[in-house]
Amino acid sequence: MLAARDRIAGIAARTPLRRSAALSAVTGGDVHLKLETCQPTGSFKLRGAANKLLTLGPQQRARGVVAMSSGNHGRAVAHVGRELGTAVTICISDRVPGVKRRAMADLGADVVVGGPDLDDADALARRMVAEQGRTWVSPFDDPAVIAGQGTIGLEILDDLPDAAEVLVPLSGGGLISGVALALKARSPAVRVVGVSQDRGPAMYESLRAGRIVPVDEEDTLADALAGGLGEENSHTMAMVAELVDDIVLVSEAEIAAAMAWAHSTEDLVVEGGGVVGIAALLAGRVRPATPAVIVVSGRNVDPATLAAIVAGRHPAGPSA
Ligand SMILES: *Cc1c(COP(=O)(O)O)cnc(C)c1O
Predict the structure, then answer these.
(1) pLDDT tens-digit series, residues 40-67
(2) Considering Cα of 253, then 170, then 151, then 282, what sign does the dihedral take?
(3) Which residues line ligand 1 (CB under 6 A)?
(4) Ligand 1 pocket test: which of 99, 171, 221 has the largest number of ligand atoms within 8 Å of its C-beta?
(5) 269 touches 299 (CB < 8 A)
(6) Ligand 1 atom having least distance to the Cα of 71
(7) What mean pLDDT is reported for the chain?
């Protein structure tokens, strides 16, 4: 993971850890926000994508890479691909928001719609890998991707060595696996809690069942957290089972309220998937030990969606 930190330094940003006076007042102890919203592509996914592409050999880079994405991973892979001169194809579903599609295309990636669900995009991507000899860049289930995301944990401990609890958005689990690994290697007592949306929380359901459970993909404000674990999982499910202390779920109304709150109180643009840690705290679903850190994982929300939420006009919003 230390190697990953050095490797990605020229591409991914070292992000700020900012104390939140308002959230500290809510909990009675210090709460800090780890602002992955400050990454050049607007989400932490740049770390894992950079680490993965930088560990590929020259032949693999020359043949190009393929990824499946709900948006942020694709944008990150496209960004790194352009930096390194590697051709990038991103398979997406119909649900991917326009702001995310355009960002990938603007970075020069080939964006292909596989069908209505991310499972369809996944199947298309794997076919392209098999037929064209290109390299698959997993959004979460790959040691190089996990190590890249884990550099967030190293930065948290550098800035706040006595962090007692860290709240992390959770979907496929690459982010939380890397962060938990980095934190617990240096600070075994720290609690790591995952936060998912209650509409189709794939890792939560799969761990409860003890096997990969296909989830019905539903529309959610946390579009970055949507989708299943795929057909097989080699790393993150076992890592989350071993390293994560608890998983809590938040509702659409709680996500909307937290997005509006972050905008008005913290002056932050945060997408639904990025705000779930704040949502869990504001809704009283967690009582973190302090000092606590909330990973704020991304900012890529359609402006019209955010405006509707801030104005209380969004269907998921509390006052609509
Ligand atoms: C991908 C993503 C997550 C979840 O990361 P996983 O590694 O899939 O658990 C959280 N927030 C944002 C903004 C993301 O793009």
Answers:
(1) 999 999 999 999 999 999 999 999 999 9
(2) positive
(3) 43, 45, 72, 139-140, 169-176, 224-225, 271, 273-274, 297-298
(4) 171
(5) yes
(6) 15
(7) 95
